[in-house]
């Protein structure tokens, strides 16, 4: 398809052109670029850098592993952002230098006036011995591998095992277990398949409150899914058939799929922007780091919310991207700064291939997070399908 040339939101201004550089083309980075571009005219440059031209939507993985999503339809090409006036650079980001205001990449050095760090969370596959060679549903290639294994599975035990918080999309292990239950029932093998979920937290979905946590527990137990809490996975045996946990227990299984340990990407840690903290601290109203006009959004940052932090989820990364785009545009154009970031967002939590709930709310409400877990419904699944389509066409 040939793309129309981008004309910009208005006439070219007399202002000296500014450079807005966005690192990472995931949920957060794309929304930051789109949001800034929506206000800034063509005299200003909006550039996005990612090593991956076609990022995949991880939120599809739980359905992808049971054959309910097409592996060719889980990505979107960042090159298509050109028709929105956003310049995409396919490159590895090697060094972020906030004092020199530039970023070294595999295709050269890029300077900036405003920087958005949206590089997500990296996986430390070696933090849990054996995890690298075990199964997982937290990465597209691992999910495709697990899909092939499940397509041949007729009996045995499946263990989903998270290592330690924080990890992306906290409902994902429970959601995946319920989807596996639905898949096994549909294939007539449920009586021959055991499903267990091990999580490091004292209960599922703690960030959404006690009531939501209890409801998820009972949803799992009514489906015959074993939930073991305060039991982060510490090791997977070399043959991938035995997992050990932080509570001293261990189990054997046919398929062990882990949620890997998440960490700050090395290039972000090396930049010093996190001040040695595990994630990048930011001003929660503007998502600005300790370095002026340098912002960090999405999984790479930490935004405290009551006793927890805003979950690492695409909806929050996207919401933060929109806010940061507005903040940057207001600073460039001299208009008044937008309302503070409110921490609002909902994640889908599918209970099967046909029904989905949502969990979320306002995470920066006065008096602590104000969240709700809805009932799983058919219309919830239709909304999830729409969300995936919208993501692929850059509406989210
Ligand atoms: C199984 C699963 C289910 C999920 N379900 C949901 C859900 O239902 N709803 C939801 O909202 N979220 C969900 N998530 C979470 C969601 O995918 C993430 O929270 C979201 O992608 C974070 O967005 P981000 O922009 O911060 O980072 P990312 O989307 O991870 O983007 C970071 C980008 O930076 C690039 N990058 C990193 N380092 C470099 C480098 N050195 N050089 C160049 N490029 C680099 C990467 O290629 C990547 O494209 C799920 C995640 C998983 C794993």
Tell me about this structure.
The chain is 25% helix and 26% strand. With 396 residues, the chain is α/β, with parallel strands linked by helices. The protein has two domains: 181 residues, FAD/NAD(P)-binding domain (3-Layer(bba) Sandwich); 138 residues, FAD/NAD(P)-binding domain. It has a five-stranded parallel β-sheet with strand order 3-2-1-7-19, covered by helices on one side. It has a five-stranded parallel β-sheet with strand order 9-16-10-11-12. A three-stranded antiparallel β-sheet has the order 4-5-6. The two termini are 21 Å apart. The site of flavin-adenine dinucleotide has 36 residues, from helix 1, helix 2, helix 7 and strand 23.
Main sheet characteristics: 5 strands, parallel
Q: Ranges with pLDDT <50 over ≥5 residues?
A: none
Strand content range: 25-35%
- The shape is globular
Task: Give the domain tally.
Answer: 2
Chain-averaged pLDDT: 94
Number of strands: 25
Bound molecules: flavin-adenine dinucleotide
CATH superfamily of the largest domain: FAD/NAD(P)-binding domain
What is the tally of helical segments? 8
Which sequence of strands runs across the widest sheet? 3-2-1-7-19
Indicate the structural class: alpha/beta
């Amino acid at each position: 398809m040939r793309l129309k040339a981008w004309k910009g939101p208005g006439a070219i201004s007399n202002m000296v052109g500014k450079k807005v550089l966005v690192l990472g083309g995931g949920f957060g980075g794309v929304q930051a670029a789109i949001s800034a571009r929506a206000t800034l005219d063509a005299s200003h440059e909006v550039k996005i850098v990612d090593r991956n031209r076609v990022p995949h939507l991880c939120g599809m993985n739980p359905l992808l592993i049971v054959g309910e999503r097409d592996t060719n339809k889980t990505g979107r090409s960042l090159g298509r952002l050109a028709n929105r006036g956003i310049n995409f650079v396919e490159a590895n980001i090697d060094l972020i230098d906030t004092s020199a205001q530039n970023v070294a990449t595999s295709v050269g050095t890029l300077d900036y006036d405003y920087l958005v760090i949206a590089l997500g969370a990296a996986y430390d596959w070696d933090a849990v011995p054996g995890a690298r060679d075990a199964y997982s549903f937290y990465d597209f290639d691992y999910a495709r591998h697990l899909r092939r294994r499940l397509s041949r599975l007729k009996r045995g035990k499946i263990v989903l095992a998270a290592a330690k918080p924080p990890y992306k999309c906290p409902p994902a292990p429970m959601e995946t277990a319920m989807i596996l239950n639905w898949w096994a029932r549909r294939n007539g093998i449920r009586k021959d398949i055991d499903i267990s979920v091990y999580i490091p937290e004292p209960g599922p979905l703690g960030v959404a409150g006690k009531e939501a946590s209890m409801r998820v527990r009972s949803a799992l137990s009514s489906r015959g899914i074993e939930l073991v809490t305060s039991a982060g996975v510490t090791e997977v045996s070399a043959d991938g058939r035995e997992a050990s946990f932080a509570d001293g227990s261990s189990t054997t299984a046919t398929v062990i799929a882990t949620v890997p340990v998440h960490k700050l990407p090395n290039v972000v840690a090396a930049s010093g922007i996190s001040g040695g903290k595990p994630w990048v601290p930011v001003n929660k109203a503007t998502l600005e780091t300790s370095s002026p006009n340098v912002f960090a959004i999405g999984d790479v940052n930490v935004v405290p919310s009551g006793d927890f932090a805003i979950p690492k989820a695409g909806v929050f990364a996207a919401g933060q991207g929109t806010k940061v785009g507005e903040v940057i545009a207001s600073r460039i154009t001299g208009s008044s700064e937008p309302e503070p970031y409110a921490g609002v967002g909902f994640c889908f939590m599918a209970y099967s291939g046909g029904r989905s709930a949502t969990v979320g709310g306002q995470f920066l409400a006065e008096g602590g997070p104000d969240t709700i877990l809805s009932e799983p419904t058919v219309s919830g699944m239709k909304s999830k399908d729409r969300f995936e389509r919208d993501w692929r066409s850059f509406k989210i």
